Amino acid sequence: MAEEVKVKLLEVEEVRQTIDDLKRRVGEMADYIKIDERRARLAELEDAQAQGDFWNDQNKAREVISATNAERAYVVPFDAILKTVDDAAVMLELAEMEEGDAQQNALKDTLQECAKADEYFGKLRLQSLLGGKFDQCNVFVRLHAGQGGTEACDWVSMLYRMYKRYAEDQGWKIEEYDSQPGEEAGYKDVYFRIEGSYAFGMLKAERGIHRLVRISPFDANKRRQTSFASMETVAEINDDIDVEIKDEDLRIDTYRAGGAGGQQVNKTDSAVRLTHLPTGIVVACQKERSQHMNKEKAMNMLRAQLYEYYEDQKKAEMDRFYGAKSENGWGSQIRSYVFCPYTMVKDLRTECETSDVMGVMDGHIQPFIEAWLQMKAK
User: What is the model's pLDDT at position 123?
Assistant: First the structure.
C-alpha cells in the first residue's frame, strides 16, 4: 500500500515539475518578447483608435491599425499561454485532493492542459522569429523550370502542388496569376499569390534552387534524372510604401488568356503583361476576365518586385563597403529531394532532413521553414 501511495506522489510531483517548467518558460518568453512594453504600446494604440477624429487622416489610421494588429499578435497568444498554465496549476491542486482512479484521471487532464500550453508556446516562439518588416504580408511566388527540360517542367508542377498543400494546411488563400505550360508536361513558369498571416515571413525561407533526383517517368529507359527549379518570393507591400512607376518606363501588352475551352474560353484580349523597361522586370496576370482587373493585379505585383529590386540594389551597395554577408541568396541550391536510389529530403543550409519524401511533397515543409528561421535568428 505504501509503495502504491509513493507511485502516486511521484506522478503528482512529475506533473508539478512540468507546470513549474512551463512557468519558467512563461517568464523567459515575457522577457524575450518584451510583453510589458507591448501591453503598454497596445493600450496606447487602442486609445488612439477610440478618439473621435481617428479616421480624419486615413493613411495614419491604417498605420495605427496595422501597428495594433502587430502588437495584439503577441499579447493575445501570450495571454492564452498564461491562462492555460494557470488553469493547469489549479487542476493540479484539485487532483491532489483526489485519490485512486479519480486522481489519475485528474492528473491526465492536467497534463493535457500542459500539452496545450506547450503547443501555444511553439506557435508564439515561431512568431517571435518573424520580425521582418514585411513578414506579416501576403506573398507573390514564382516557380521557374531550370535545367532538365520536360523533367524540370514536371518538377515545377510538383513544387506548385506542394506549396498549395502547405498553404491549405495553414489556412491561407492561394490565387494563380499566370502560367506558361511546358511542352509535354508541367510548367515552364507559374506565378501565384498566397494570402495569409505571415505568408511572406514563412515562405521567404523557401527562396532558392530546389533539386530533384528520381527515375524519370518521361524516359523510356528508366534512367535516373536530376532536375532543377527555382522559387522566388516577393512580399506584397502595403499601399503606404511608395514605389514610383513612370508611364514612359512601362510597356503594356495584352493577349488572349489561356484556360479551359468550350463556353469557358476567353474570347477577348483580357490578359495583361507589364514590362518595366529600365529594370527588365516582367509580370503578367490572366486570372480575371476583365483586362482592367488583370492590369491592377499585375501592377500590384510589379510594385512589389520593384521594391525588392531597389532594396537589393541598396544592399549590394552596402556590401561593397562593408563586405557581402554569407547567406544563401538567389541562384544557390537550398534543398535536395531524392526519390531514388533512396528517399530523402535535405536542406543544405540547415542540415534539416527527413526520409518522408511523400509527406514533404504533400506540403509538410514546416520543419524546414522553422529550422531556417531559427538559423537566421541565431
Answer: 80
What is the C-alpha separation between 157 and 20, in angstroms, rounded?
48
Contact call for residues 78 and 128 (beta carbons, < 8 A): no
**Long-range contacts of the stretch 286-295 (C-beta < 8 A, 24+):** 286/177, 286/178, 286/255, 286/257, 286/258, 286/259, 287/175, 287/176, 287/177, 287/178, 289/257, 291/254, 294/257, 294/270, 295/252
Asked if residues 181 and 188 have their Cβ atoms less than 8 Å apart, the reply is yes
pLDDT given for residue 317 in this prediction:
55
Q: Give the residue from 141, 157, 156, 122 showing the smallest Cα distance to 206.
A: 141
Quick one: what percent of the chain has pLDDT higher than 90?
A: 46
C-beta separation of 338 from 323 below 8 A: no
Could you give the angle at the alpha carbon of 178 between the alpha carbons of 174 and 184, nearest 5°? 110
* Closest-CA residue to 250 (of 302, 183, 310): 302
Amino acid at 280: G
Strand positions, DSSP E, 167-238: 173-181, 187-195, 208-215, 224-235
For range 320-333, the mean pLDDT: 46
Q: Cα(358)–Cα(344) distance, rounded to whole angstroms? A: 10
Q: Nearest 5°: CA angle at 97, between 93 and 102? A: 105
Give the pLDDT band of residue 268 (cuts 50, 70, 90). low
Alpha helices in 33-149 (DSSP H): 35-49, 58-96, 100-128
Long-range Cβ contacts of 291-294 (<8 Å, 24+ apart):
291/254, 294/257, 294/270
Q: How does pLDDT run across 34-53, given as a tens digit for each residue?
A: 999 999 999 999 999 999 88
